[in-house]
Design goal:
Helix content is 47%, strand content 13%. Bound molecules: flavin-adenine dinucleotide.
């Protein structure tokens, strides 16, 4: 089923992002995480894509779909030639994958530029247009930033390219993580004023640790509100930071649900505990159906 259809049903979806495993240790952790989070009956999940683990992405989305009967979307980036991209998309359709998240892909490191393999697939919008233009029947998601992408000069720039993705055929968007809902509400107001009607799903990250927070804020451009940063600065250890992250995310989700978001998409980093605690709290507050 197309994810856009689920997002337009009028009740918020719950979804999880899993990272394709890089080695056997990660496979075991991921297996446990998927099993634990499947118990929360997500409406859909997605699996990240990296060139070196591309086969694993495809393997995992089909397995989750078959074993757990959960709609599973594969991420795909501009890391391949057009022929290779076609081969992957053909494979997805053949295996019954119904949705693809069309992305440019992360640069190799925080200060390094992204190098496209094919000059015609240099941006997320190029990949969206490629999927749509080649007649694939897949639902297409794309990424957007509630804050500023680290490579963008300003938010206007960012907004223009988000619009381009929708014009190229993206039928829903997922935001990069953010810790201050005002960025998301502002993005929605501007999108609706500009006539963008597709669902825009907030992407949420419960902070896993001090080190991961530093890395993801650098890669994503997300900022941490002063009050949360001050609490993190004086937290004695990573468990205390994890708890602060869960509490903050519960507050974010509660406000987003009250505002009528189409869904909540959790960046899990292949860990089940934080997302489980957040969903438990939201159900306890009757903000989500049990
Ligand atoms: P783009 O839209 O191409 O944007 C990248 C930069 O280029 C931005 O600064 C933008 O303003 C600018 N830009 C966009 N279009 C144009 C244009 N036509 N001309 C000039 N400049 C332009 N990365 C992975 O490697 N694998 C994953 O699986 C993955 N999953 C993700 C899932 C989500 C939900 C999100 C939000 C991000 C994910 N990422 C993943 C990270 C993502 O690839 C990076 O954030 C990347 O830097 C941006 O991707 P994009 O598709 O938005 O790129």
């Amino acid at each position: 089923m197309r994810i856009a259809h689920l997002l337009n049903r009028g009740r918020p979806t719950v979804s999880f992002e899993f990272m394709a495993p890089r080695d056997e240790d990660e496979v075991l952790i991921l297996e446990r995480t998927v099993a634990a989070l499947a118990g929360h009956a997500p409406d859909w999940v997605s699996v990240t894509y990296r060139v070196r683990t591309g086969e694993k992405t495809l393997e995992l989305v089909t397995r989750i779909k078959r074993q757990y009967h959960i709609e599973s979307m594969a991420h795909l980036t501009c890391a391949n030639t057009r022929d290779e991209t076609r081969r992957i998309l053909n494979w997805m359709e053949r295996e019954g994958i119904a949705n693809v998240l069309a992305l440019r892909g992360d640069p190799p490191g925080p200060a390094q530029p992204f190098q496209p393999v094919d000059p015609e697939l240099a941006h997320g919008s190029d990949l969206v247009a490629f999927v749509r233009g080649n007649g694939y029947r897949l639902g297409i998601g794309a990424a957007c930033s509630a804050e500023k992408h680290p490579e963008s000069p300003d938010r206007e720039h960012e907004f223009r390219y988000m619009q381009l993705k929708v014009e190229a055929g993206a039928d829903f968007l997922i935001t990069q993580l953010f810790f201050d809902n005002r960025f998301y509400f502002d993005l929605i107001a501007r999108a609706r004023a500009a006539g963008i009607k597709v669902p825009i799903v907030p992407g949420l990250m419960p902070i896993p640790s001090r080190r991961s927070l530093a890395f993801v804020t650098q890669m994503s451009g997300a900022t941490v509100p002063d009050q949360l940063q001050q609490a993190i600065d004086v937290a004695p250890d990573d468990e205390a930071i994890r708890k602060l992250g869960v509490e903050h995310c519960i507050r974010q989700c509660a406000e987003l649900l009250e505002a009528g978001v189409p869904g909540l998409h959790f960046y899990t980093f292949n860990r089940a505990r934080a997302a489980s605690e957040i969903l438990g709290a939201l159900r306890g507050q009757q903000l989500l159906a049990s």
